């Protein structure tokens, strides 16, 4: 947790991308703490210090819905306890924006920022990346989880290793034309979220092309969504750049302004 010297009455919860350690978001967090925000990062169950060893992963039966209903929700409750008077913005990255729709603590959220949050159905991608997504869902995850008892993403040079059931559920989503919405049940709370949402996409992001980000934004049907495809800096941000210090004077500045005023830039 990052505690400001002089609080401005706002908190930020960062809900990370799949397999990304919370430390990736520390520079972003320190910057916003310097502006007066209380900032909380966390690892999903099965990632990093939250049970990420091979031995622990083989015993881990968590799934993506639980990453939203348990992990993201629990972090939100903790942040609300620490700073009960603060407004809360949830800054989400990739899968983090998808699992907001499973979070029963959503009434505590004042606004959401979705950074490259998308639908990852493989046919939504083009060129060589379409084949890569097909192979990821249909070859790498089934074979990897079968051989290891978890998905060995780290040795493959992708990201942190993943729990088996979480990875297999993600695979089911990624091979369904309607992605996660193809499995809708009572745990889906997407229509209940009514806070302002800012949804961002970027050029040269092979993991979150604009049409896939558009799709996810449309699933939050009750929320006022501001959808921005950010092109001011060409191909630089990509899928991960938003959270890196070179964008402190642009994307981070615009984010602070949106949180405070509901206006971009």
Quick overview of this protein structure:
With 265 residues, the protein is α/β, with parallel strands linked by helices.
Can you describe what's shown?
The protein is 35% helix and 14% strand. It is an alpha/beta fold. The strands form two sheets. It has a six-stranded parallel beta sheet, sandwiched between helices. A two-stranded antiparallel sheet has the order 5-6. Helix 5 (127-148) runs antiparallel to helix 6. The protein starts with 9 loop residues before the first strand and ends with a helix.
State the major sheet: 6 strands, parallel
Please state the average pLDDT score.
Answer: 97
* Radius of gyration, in angstroms, nearest whole number: 18 Å
Low-confidence stretches: none
Helix/sheet category: alpha/beta
Strand order of the largest sheet: 2-1-3-4-7-8
Shape category = globular
Q: What's the SSE pattern?
A: EHEHHEHEHEEHEHEH
- Oligomeric nature of the chains: single chain
**Spatial separation of the terminal alpha carbons:** 27 Å
By DSSP (H or I, 4+ residues per run), the number of helices equals 8
The proportion of strand residues reads 5-15%
């Amino acid at each position: 947790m990052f505690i400001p010297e002089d609080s401005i009455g706002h908190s930020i919860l960062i809900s990370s991308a799949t397999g990304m350690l919370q430390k990736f978001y520390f520079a972003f967090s320190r910057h916003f703490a310097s502006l007066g925000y209380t900032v909380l990062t966390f690892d999903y169950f099965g990632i990093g210090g939250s049970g990420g060893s091979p031995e622990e992963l083989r015993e881990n039966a968590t799934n993506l819905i639980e990453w939203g209903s348990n992990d993201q929700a629990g972090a939100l409750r903790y942040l609300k306890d620490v700073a009960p008077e603060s407004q809360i913005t949830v800054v989400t990255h990739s899968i983090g924006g998808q699992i907001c729709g499973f979070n029963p603590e959503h009434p505590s959220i004042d606004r959401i920022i979705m950074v490259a949050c998308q639908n990852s159905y493989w046919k939504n991608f083009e060129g060589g990346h379409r084949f890569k997504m097909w192979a990821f869902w249909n070859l790498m995850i089934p074979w990897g989880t079968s051989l290891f008892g978890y998905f060995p993403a780290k040795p493959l040079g992708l990201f942190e290793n993943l729990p088996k059931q979480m990875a297999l559920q993600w695979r089911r989503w990624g091979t369904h034309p309607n992605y996660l919405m193809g499995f809708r049940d009572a745990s889906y709370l997407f229509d209940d979220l009514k806070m302002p949402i800012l949804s961002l996409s970027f050029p040269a992001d092979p993991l979150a092309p604009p049409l896939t980000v558009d799709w996810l934004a449309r699933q939050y049907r009750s929320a006022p969504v501001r959808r921005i495809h950010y092109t001011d800096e060409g191909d630089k941000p990509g899928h991960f750049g938003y959270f890196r210090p070179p964008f402190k004077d642009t994307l981070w500045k615009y984010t602070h302004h949106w949180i405070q005023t509901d206006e971009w830039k």
